[in-house]
Structure formats: structure tokens, C-alpha cells
Design a protein that fits this description.
This protein is of the alpha/beta class. The chain has one domain: P-loop containing nucleotide triphosphate hydrolases (Rossmann fold). 47% of the residues lie in helices and 12% in strands. Strands 2-3-1-4-5 form a 5-stranded parallel beta sheet, with helices on both faces. The relative contact order is 0.22.
């Protein structure tokens, strides 16, 4: 029987460069009944396109929005809000489509200045486990909210791993495969 106090819900990040299958896995986990927090960057990118805040396409919006500092701060704030929501859950486990350190990794990849407050936030709000999906050229596509090339996606993958490791995370790489096999790998690893 569950008490009315929140459990110490395990917070699991699923990350990787663009077009690696993160959202597909998150959607599959939701279908299986797990609590999942969706990626917020695609919504911000879509909003920036609508407001014509993106100067050009064919690169990452983090370097193309009119105010990248505001974009990054909004992104980190939304990811922090999801983290804080997870503290009130009555579930044993929840999943995040990217975590707060992803913002730092992208900022590093695109040579943007990083505020100490963002680093401190990443040090303060800690996830329990991080799964990294590798670049997968077969499924890689660009679309209206994903502008990176495959080469940029590979660079982002490397920086994501370095960034999470710099905060002391043991990063578990998820093998390429069907959504069912990848999800099974993640669940068995937990």
C-alpha cells in the first residue's frame, strides 16, 4: 500500500544526439505505463520558428535564435520544472527525454558562453541514471525542428557523453536496435 508521501522516484535520463530514437523510446515507455517527461526543445524550436526568431535554418536553433541566452535559460528552466515535478511522483521510476546537462553539452558544441548558474543547477539536481543513444545514420532525418547534420549529431553525441561524465555520471550506451530491444536493454540495466 502506498503512503501519501512521495516516493524517492528514480530519475532516468535518455539522451543522445538528434535523431537517435529517444522520443520513440520515451513514447514506448509511456505506452508501457511509465511516467515520462517529454523533450521541450522541439516545442521551443517550433515556437521560435512561428515567431520568426530563427535567423536561418540548417543548423541548431541554439545558435540561430535571436536571443540564444534566453532560449537556453528557458530550456533549462523547463527541464528543471520537470525534475521538480518528478519529486512529487508516487512512482518507483520515471524517464526524461534529455536532462539539464544536455543544455550545457549543446552550448559547448555551439561555442556559447555558459553561466555558472547553469553549471550549479546541473550539480544540484542529480539524476539516478543516464542512458546515451548513439548516432544512427539509418534513422537520421532532418525536419522543421531538427536542423543538425549527421556530422553535427556525432559531435553532439560525444559532447553529451563528456558533459554527463564531467558531473560524475556513469553513462550507459544503448545498442542500436528495435524500440522493443532498446527499451528492454534500458529496463534490464536498471
Amino acid at each position: 500500500m502506498k503512503s501519501h508521501e512521495a516516493l524517492n522516484t528514480k530519475k532516468i535520463v535518455i539522451t543522445g544526439g538528434p535523431a537517435t530514437g529517444k522520443t520513440t523510446i520515451i513514447n514506448y515507455l509511456k505506452h508501457k505505463g511509465y511516467t515520462c517527461f517529454e523533450e521541450v526543445a522541439r516545442k521551443l524550436t517550433s515556437d521560435a520558428l512561428e515567431l520568426e526568431n530563427i535567423k536561418e535554418i540548417h543548423s541548431n536553433p541554439i545558435e540561430l535564435v535571436a536571443d540564444s541566452d534566453k532560449f537556453n535559460q528557458t530550456l533549462i528552466d523547463l527541464r528543471l520544472a520537470d525534475f521538480l515535478k518528478s519529486l512529487t511522483l508516487m512512482d518507483e521510476i520515471c524517464f526524461f527525454d534529455r536532462g539539464t546537462p544536455d543544455v550545457l553539452a549543446y552550448m559547448t558544441c555551439f561555442n556559447q558562453p555558459i553561466k555558472e548558474s547553469i553549471i550549479d543547477l546541473c550539480k544540484t539536481y542529480i539524476y539516478d541514471c543516464v542512458f546515451l543513444l548513439p548516432p544512427w545514420e539509418l534513422i537520421f532525418t532532418q525536419d522543421e525542428e531538427r536542423f543538425e547534420t549527421f556530422n553535427q549529431a556525432t559531435k553532439i553525441h560525444t559532447q553529451l557523453k563528456k558533459t554527463y561524465q564531467s558531473f560524475g555520471y556513469h553513462v550507459i550506451e544503448v545498442p542500436i536496435g528495435t524500440v522493443e530491444k532498446r527499451t528492454e536493454f534500458i529496463l534490464k540495466s536498471l
